[in-house]
Amino acid sequence: MPEAKIEAWLEEDREFTPSAAFSAQANAQPSIYEEAGADPVAWWREQADRLTWTTTPTKSLEWDLPNAKWFADGTLNASVSCVDVHVSEGRGGRVAFHWVADAEGESRTITYHELHRQVCRTANALIELGVTKGDRIAVYMPMIPEAIFAMLAIVRLGAIHSVVFGGFSAEALGSRILDSNCRFVVTADGAFRRGTASPLKAAVDEALKSCPNVSAVLVVKRTESDVEWVPGRDHWWHDIVERQSDVHEPEAFPAETPLFIMYTSGTTAKPKGIFHTTAGYLTQAATTYYNVFDVKPETDVCWTAADIGWITGHSYIVYGPLINGVTQILYEGLPDSGGRDRWWKIISGYKATILYTAPTTIRTLMKWGHQIPEEYDLTSLRLLGTVGEPINPEAWMWYRKNIGGDRCPIVDTWWQTETGAILCSPLPGVTSTKPGAAMRALPGISTAVVDDAGNPVGHGEGGYLVVTQPWPAMIRGIWGDPDRFFDTYWSRFPGKYFAGDGAKLDAEGDLWLLGRVDDVMNISGHRLSTTEVEHALVGHRAVAEAAVVGASDETTGQAIVAFVTLKLSAEDAEKDHAALIEELRAHVASTISPIAKPREIILTPDLPKTRSGKIMRRLLRDVAENRSLGDVTTLTDPTVVNMITGLMDTHASSDD
Ligand code: PRX
Question: Which amino acid residue places its CA nearest to atom 13 of ligand 1?
C-alpha cells in the first residue's frame, strides 16, 4: 500500500517550499546542516550549552560500540535545566503549563515559579518516603500536573522514573515494576475519560500483590473514587507533599546518570526497558525542540497532544519544552471529551501556536469532518507536527489545509523510544516538505537506507533505515539485559544501529518511512509485538494456539487480527463463538491494555505452518488484508489457508 501511494503522490510532484516570511524568522538556517556536518561531535558539544551545568564537560563522545558516553565528565541536575534556571534568570512568572481538564471549565495555570515550588516539595516528600539516588520509581498517572512534578522531582534526586502509561493493565504494570525492581510507585486514585472516572489505584494494588519490594505508594486524589488503603505503604499526596518545604537544594550528578526507563515492545513477548541517561538525552531533546518546532519561548503556546506515558510525552512535553522555557498546553482528556470540537476550543481559547500529534488522531479528526474545526479561529497556529507512524498523504493534506490553513509548515518527525529524540524531519523554514515524507536526517545525525547486505541503496530504492553514527539521546541499554541490547540493534548490520523500519529514498534522495519490517505492530502509533498479544491469547484457558498479525486499517494505521485455535473445555463448548471471541478480546485488553484488543479474532481449526513448524505470518497478513496469497509452496497443509480464507469471508459478512 504505502509504496503505490507514494508513487502516485510523487507523480503529482507535490512539494511545499518554505515561505519566505517563515524562513526569515526561523530558528534554523540553511547553513545548519553544513555546520553540524563538518564536525557533528563538536556541534553537539556546542548544543550541550543549552543545559545548565554544574561542572562544564570537557569530553564530548566516547564510543565503544554499542556503548556511548556523551559529555561524561560534566555534572548537572536535570530538573535545574528544566525549572530552576528559568526562575533564577527572571522567567519565573512565565506560564509553564496551561493545564486543561477532561471536564470543560476546569483548568489550572502553572508558572515556572509555581512549577519550581511543586517540584521542590515533591522532592522533599520523596526523600521523606525514603527515595535515594539510583532508585527506580514507577509513575502510573493520568495527565495531571502532578505527573510532571513527580517526574522532575524523581530526577532531581538522581532517581530513575519508569512511567507506565495509565491505560496499561495491572499485569502489565506489575511486570514493569518487577523488571526494574521499582521500590516506589506514584499514582492517582483514578483518571477521567470523557467525564467518567476509571480506577488507577486499584490496578496498582493488584500489581503490587506480586511486587514485594515496593515500600511506598504516593497517591494523588483526582476522582474521589473509593480506594483500598494499605497503612504504612500508601500515602495521600495532599497529606505528605503539601506540608513540605518549598526549598530543595539540588545535587549535581554525572552526565551519564540514568534518567529514566521506558518500556516498549520488541519482537518477543517481554517488553524491553529502554533506558536513557541525563546530559546527552537532554541536549538532543532541547536542540530538536528548538530547531524542529522553531519555538519562540516568549510568544509560543505549544501543544504536544501526547500522553506522558510515552516517549513523545517525555521528550516533547517534559524535557525538551521545559529546557527551552516555553509555555505549553497540558490536556487531560480525549479528543472528544465534551464534544468533537474540544481540541479546536482549546486551540482557539489558548491561542495555541504549535500542535504536535499522531496520524491516527489526524485521521479520526478527518473522519469527524472539516466542518468542526471550521467553526473555530485556528489562525494562531503557525506550525504542525506529526509522529508515531507513517502519515498517509491524504491525512497530511487534510491537516495542512483544514488545521494549518495552508500556511503552517508540517514537520513529519521520525524517531523511536530508543532514539530518545527526533532523528529525521524537515526543518521548518529550511527544508521543503512532501506529504508523507520525513525528508532527511537532522543536523548532527547520520542515517542511511541500506539493502539486505548493508549497502546504501540509490535514489528511488527501498531498504532498511539505519543510523550510522552515535547520537547524544541514543538508548544506553535495555535494563538488565546487555546481550539483548546488542542483538536487537547492533547485530543485523555490523557497526550500524538497526531501527526495525523499512524506508525508501525517492528520486531526489528524500526519505519516506514505510513501517516496521519486524514483528512489531503499530496500532494508533502505539508499539505492540505480535508475540506479546499471542502470549496473552494463549494465556486464556480456551486457546490452544494463536497467531497475530498487524493488518492495515484506515484509522489506526494497523489493527490486530488474531487467528486462534481452541482447546475447548466443556464450559467453553457451551458458548457460541461470538461470545467466546468477545471474551478473548476482553481477555487481551485486561492482560495488556485496551490498545491491544484485537480488531478481529478468527477461530480456525489449524494454523498455516512451514515444514519446519513456523507459523506463516506473511500469509496470514495477506489473508487478513484480503490480498492474493503469493508463494505457499512451503506450507505443510495448503488446505489450511483455504479454510482460513473461507472463515475470513464468513466473518467479514457477519461482522458486527
Ligand atoms: O515504526 C516507526 C514508527 O514508530 C516506531 C517507534 O515507536 P515508539 O518507540 O513507540 O515511538 C513513537 C514516538 C516517537 C518507529 O520504529 N514511527 C515513529 N515516527 C514515525 C514512524 N513511522 C513513520 N513516520 C514517522 N514520523
Answer: 388
